[in-house]
Every structure is written in structure tokens, then in C-alpha cells.
Amino acid sequence: MAITALHAAATGMKAQDTKLDVLANNLANVNTAGFKRARVNFEDLMYQIKREPGVRNAEDEPVPHGIQVGLGVSVSGTQQSFTQGAQEQTDVDLDTRIIGEGFFVVRTIQNGTPVDAYTRDGSFSRNSEGNLVMANSEGSILEPPVTIPADASSIVIGNNGDVSVVEGDGPLTVVGQIGLGRFVNPEGLKQIGKNLWVETDASGPAVTGAPQTDGMGALQQGSLEMSNVDPVRELIQLILTQRSFELNSQSIQAADQALQVVANLRR
Q1: Alpha-carbon span 161 to 180, nearest angstrom
Q2: Out of 1-5, 88-92, 155-159, 180-184, which region has the weakest mean confidence (pLDDT)?
Q3: What is the separation, in whole angstroms, between the first and last Cα of the chain?
Q4: Cα–Cα distance, 31 to 38 (Å, whole number)
Q5: 14 phi and psi, to 5 degrees?
Q6: Percent of the chain with pLDDT over 70
Q7: Lowest mean pLDDT across 49-53, 191-195, 205-209
Q8: Could you give the CA distance from residue 95 to residue 108 in angstroms, rounded to a whole number?
Q9: What angle do CA 225, 210, 123 make, to 5 degrees?
Q10: What gap in Å lies between CA 92 and CA 263, rounded to an integer?
């Protein structure tokens, strides 16, 4: 009896606690360049079938419904939203924004092995060798590498990814191209921190190419794509999550009171 209600309400509290963790992470990254918000999806658990729907009654007619008691809820997964984030105009030469689909491809180390990783964070800088790298804690190098000469006086990044520089009084010269990668199912990418994703079997392999080709977006120099988190929306979800957590705790209290009545029947 009330034991089932206790367990069902406990699963509800656990599920809402997970949602609270995801919402907190969304809000914590509201100013993180290229961050994509996540949401929590739920699914109901197994059911106790106390009477099958459609069984025959005494008149040999099917009953319109059965008796099915659910055993609670669980988190079925977290789903990322890859909608375009807001634009921040920085006027920094190496800051680059993707308009449309695609990810910048960078080289990172995972479990001691170099792998390709993907990011929407276009805040780039130069390392000691002049290569373009992410301005994150790891300094992941752009793939394929783009090297800026030490004496470059001007840097131009075209919409098609061409990186051109002016050396001294010379002409504008193309020194490399920033490529992009896209996925059939970007929601299947695995987040590894540092504004990076890596491919999985769920995402499928990356399709790489130049910007403005094969469905890739265009690049815009001097601006960044910021987080797509809407603080107002997240705060509303936070309030709803708190209330859902409280309602599940009330269910536990009600089940406890019912058990207490049963325990006191002999008195």
C-alpha cells in the first residue's frame, strides 16, 4: 500500500534533484562562449498491473480499463539544445563566430591520446609558434593548423574561412583556412569540458569541410557566439523544479502518515 507511494515519491525527488543539477549548470555557464543549454527528459517506470485492461467481467464483456499502479519516474537522458547563441561584438581580430551549423575542429588530449574535438567557442589566440589555438585552459590547437607569421600587421578571416595576413608593406596573403565539422546528430556528442565535445556512436562521424559548403555555416570575424541559455526561462524551470520536489516530499509525508495509522491499529 503506502510502501509503493514512498518509493514512487522517492524516485520523483531523485529525478528532480538531477534536473536541479542540470539547471544549475546551465545558469553557471550563462556567460560561457559557445555553451549549449541542456534539458532533462523523464520517463515513467514499470507498472503494477492489478487488473489487466480489457479482461472479461461476469457478463463476459471487456472492462473499459484496468488497475495499473505506477512505480515512479526516472531520468531518461539529458538533451542539448544547439540553437544559435547571442552575438557579442568584440572587434578582436582572432575572435570568430559561426553563423549556422558546424563546429570548429581542434586537437586535444583524451586519456593520453590525441583526438579531434569540436567547439562553438571561437575565441582564438596564437601560441609561441604562431598557431591558432583556443583561448581556453588547455590551448587546443586548431585542426588543420593555421600559422600566423610573427610580423603580420593585419589579420583578415573571411566568411569562407580563409585566413589572410599582411606582412610589413606586402599584399594580403592567404596563410590557411579554418575548417568546420558537423554531425547528423549533434545531440549525441559527448561533453568533455573546456567548451569541447567529442564524437560518439550516437552523433555519428564528423563531416568536415570549408565554411559555406556542404551545409556548413559562415564565419564572422570580430565577434563571438555566446551561450544560448535564457536566464529567465531557466529561473522559471528552477521554480517549477523546487515545487515538484516539495510535492514529492509531501507524498512521502502522506504515505508515512498512512503507515503510522496502520501501525497504530492494535492500540
Answers
A1: 9
A2: 1-5
A3: 20
A4: 15
A5: -65, -40
A6: 99
A7: 49-53
A8: 20
A9: 30
A10: 71
- Report pTM: 0.90
Question: Could you read off the pLDDT of 196-222 as tens digits, one per residue?
Answer: 999 999 999 999 999 999 999 999 999
Q: Rounded to an integer, what distance in angstroms lies between the CA atom of residue 101 and that of residue 219?
A: 10
**Cβ neighbours for 237, distance < 8 A, ≥ 6 positions apart:** 19, 23
What's the confidence (pLDDT) of residue 1? 62
What are the distances in angstroms from CA 2 to CA 43, 68, 100?
22, 15, 53
CB 121 within 8 A of CB 98: no
Whole-angstrom distance, CA of residue 114 vs CA of residue 180? 18
Q: Show the 3-state SS of 20-54.
A: HHHHHHHHHCCCCCCCCCEEEEEEECCEEEEECCC
CA distance 218 to 99: 5
Q: What is the DSSP letter of 206?
A: -
d(CA 65, CA 102): 50
Question: Do the beta carbons of residue 188 and residue 206 sit within 8 Å?
Answer: no
DSSP β-bridge partners for residue 89: 223
Asked if the model's pLDDT at residue 93 lies above 80, the reply is: yes
Task: Write out pLDDT tens, residues 22-32.
Answer: 999 999 999 99
